[in-house]
């Protein structure tokens, strides 16, 4: 009898893993402490690394208003947009190959290597002389960053049960949003180094932030933990015992029965890509990243267009991202508590629409600035929400690897869209770009509605024994 058949009796997706554990006589207090140990070992380093990843890919707007726009003549035609979007071409292409290598090489070695590599590229951007050199650096930066975020999503989803995962996704992602919000203030401070050692202020932004990334990448080699089924193969400094790992794997099997990784082959990749669900989740992720990237790349420029000084534009960029962190984290906790995904995603999409509309059409600059709070919060909050929506509704490690790569890859398409629809000729209000971002939110609402209806019907058929979901007789969808 297959492992899946053997585990049908204990798999329970309607109740929490803790409820089932209590009935089985498992020490819940020890299990809780064990998960907190995993939290502190896994999430802070991923949050720190993704913080520098976001800063490194979005600090172009800070450098632009600090003098790079003039020095490299990025104001000519669409040069600035080209430099932005070229990051996302290799970022999209190399995500799935990177996830395939992740398990073969090991999480710490693979992630540490690519972080050090893109940190070196970022450092080198401080010495570019022409806009074409900048574009080349951005392209290489996208190549090395491609594997990081899908790897993080894949790794986190493998350690936790389904109704724990959104607040964990939100924790590591929104910490990076919070830190990224202060990147403009950091950039303003680095601008004050204008002329030091004969180097322009905008160059110091790339040099210092690249050096920070290099340092964290070296640290990652020693801190990041591997997947639950592989962690004991590496030195973990006594972090987990064999019994601890069995408890972790038991929790996952009670929740969705996929603690042991199945081999990822190209045949399986093709099979997983035939599942329309992961395409729907990917389009939802695209919809959330268009406004998220748009505000990251263009908010200082939008604020500058409102009449604020360059310095004040940098400083005023931080508060909307701080608010987004609190907003998104609070809703992630609620989503895990009520064990629902769709209503939270829909609410955040509506908040984003309202914010974008205010930024587009309010006459008062204060009102437009308020709109950025709502727009940033709705967009950034939906990033971990949509990631969790997919994570809750698929099984098997191979499918998680393919799904996370495809989903985050569509985020790269969102970045390309954000880079191109906010055109120089549309300054200072960027109406066309803001409407594109709003349209993406309506797409999220439509797909959320469609998947909710489908999941409800599928669960009813599963309960009647008419349908097997995700190749497991006891699995049900979360909506």
TrEMBL record:
Show where the Major facilitator superfamily (MFS) profile domain sits.
42-464
Which sequence ranges are marked TM in the entry?
42-60, 80-98, 110-128, 140-161, 170-190, 202-225, 278-303, 315-335, 342-362, 368-389, 401-422, 434-457
| GO cellular component terms, semicolon-separated | membrane
Localisation: Membrane
- Topology versus the membrane, per the UniProt entry? Multi-pass membrane protein
InterPro entries on file: MFS (IPR011701), MFS_dom (IPR020846), MFS_trans_sf (IPR036259)
* This protein's name: MFS general substrate transporter
Organism in which the protein naturally occurs:
Ascodesmis nigricans
């Amino acid at each position: 009898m297959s492992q899946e058949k053997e585990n049908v009796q204990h798999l329970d997706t309607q109740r929490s893993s803790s409820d089932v554990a209590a009935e089985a006589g498992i020490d819940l207090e020890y299990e809780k402490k064990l998960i907190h140990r995993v939290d502190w070992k896994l999430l802070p380093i991923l949050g720190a690394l993704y913080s520098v990843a976001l800063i490194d890919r979005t600090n172009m707007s800070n450098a632009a208003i600090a003098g790079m726009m003039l020095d490299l003549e990025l104001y000519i035609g669409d040069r600035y947009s080209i430099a932005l979007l070229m990051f996302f071409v290799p970022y999209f292409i190399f995500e799935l190959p990177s996830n395939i290598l992740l398990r073969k090489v090991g999480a710490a070695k693979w992630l540490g290597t690519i972080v050090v590599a893109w940190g070196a590229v970022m450092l080198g951007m401080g010495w570019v002389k022409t806009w074409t050199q900048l574009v080349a650096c951005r392209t290489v930066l996208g190549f090395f960053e491609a594997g990081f975020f899908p790897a993080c999503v894949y790794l986190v989803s493998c350690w936790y049960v389904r109704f724990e995962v959104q607040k964990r996704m939100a924790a590591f992602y929104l910490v990076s949003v919070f830190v990224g919000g202060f990147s403009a203030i950091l950039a303003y401070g680095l601008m004050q180094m204008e002329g030091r050692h004969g180097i322009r202020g905008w160059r110091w932004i790339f040099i210092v932030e690249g050096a920070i990334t290099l340092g964290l990448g070296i640290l990652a080699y020693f801190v990041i933990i591997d997947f639950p089924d592989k962690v004991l193969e590496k030195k973990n400094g006594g972090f987990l015992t064999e019994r601890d790992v069995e408890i972790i794997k038991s929790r996952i099997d009670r929740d969705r029965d996929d603690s042991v990784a199945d081999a990822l082959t190209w045949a399986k990749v093709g099979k997983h890509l035939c599942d329309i669900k992961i395409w729907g989740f990917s389009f939802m992720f695209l919809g959330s990243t268009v406004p998220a990237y748009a505000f990251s790349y263009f908010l200082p420029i939008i604020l500058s267009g409102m009449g604020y000084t360059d310095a004040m534009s940098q400083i005023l960029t931080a508060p909307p991202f701080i608010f987004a962190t609190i907003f998104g984290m609070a809703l992630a906790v609620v989503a895990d508590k009520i064990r629902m995904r769709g209503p939270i995603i829909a609410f955040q999409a509506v908040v984003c629409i309202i914010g974008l509309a205010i930024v587009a059409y309010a006459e008062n600059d204060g009102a437009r600035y308020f709109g950025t709070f709502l727009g940033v919060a709705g967009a950034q909050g939906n990033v971990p929400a949509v990631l969790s929506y997919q994570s809750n509704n698929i099984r098997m490690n191979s499918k998680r690897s393919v799904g996370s790569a495809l989903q985050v890859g569509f985020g790269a398409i969102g970045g390309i869209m954000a880079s191109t629809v906010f055109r120089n000729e549309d300054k200072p209000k960027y109406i066309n770009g803001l409407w594109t971002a709003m349209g993406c939110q309506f797409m999220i609402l439509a797909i959320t509605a469609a998947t909710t209806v489908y999941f409800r019907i599928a669960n009813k058929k599963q309960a009647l024994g008419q349908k097997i979901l995700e190749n497991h007789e006891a699995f049900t969808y979360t909506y």
